[in-house]
Amino acid sequence: MISSPLRLTRLALCLAAVSATAACATRPDARVAEMATTVGAPEPMRGYDWFLNRDDDEVSLAYGVANSDDVKLHLSCQAGAGVLDLTAAADKPGREIHLESGGDTERYAATSEPAVVHDGELLTARARTQDPVFQRFRRLGWIAAWPDDERHMYVAHPQAKVGIEQFFAVCG
To answer: What is the DSSP string of 5-35?
Structure first.
């Protein structure tokens, strides 16, 4: 079957349009990519922040209210070990700590025990500093926890971002 020149022209135009669309889809505008990382970034909550503490070779980073027992997420490590001990507050017993930062997410098998200083539970787990969710947290300055299937954002105020970087630098 011989194709008419009109059919060939239409086919060529369709292929060109598909190619142009594919090229646009695979090369996003740099400004759009930059906006995606800044627009919608979570805001710090008044009264809460990340606090760094170092005691000899043990380093900890806690999100909560300064000088109080109100701590939502606590990370600790031995210097250079690359392993994190996680403690997260929850309203009820749970079997995992679910964390997210900038699109990376991870679930850590956890043990649960009643909290002593407040109502609810404390979930504990282990993780690695090199896990993508923690590397993203290190870059962005925020991480979200999902206790009881509800998203809680833990966002650093600008001055606390230095402490986050120091924490991961020491932990390895």
So the answer is: HHHHHHHHHHHHHHHHHHHHHHS--HHHHHH
